[in-house]
Amino acid sequence: MKQTTDFLKMKEKNEKIVMLTAYDYPSAKQAEQGGVDVILVGDSLGMVVLGYDSTIPVTVEDMIHHTKAVKRGAKDTFIVVDMPFLTYHLSVRDTLINAGRLIQETGAHAVKLEGADEVIEKISALTKAGIPVCAHLGLTPQSVGVLGGYKVQGKDAHAAKKLLEDAKGCEEAGAFAVVLECVPKQLAEEVAKSISIPVIGIGAGISVDGQVLVYHDILGYGVERVPKFVKQYHSVNPFMIESIQAYAADVKNNQFPEDKHTFTMKEEELKVLYG
Ligand code: KIV
Ligand code: NA
Question: What cofactor requirement does the entry state (predicted)?
Answer without folding.
Answer: Mg(2+)
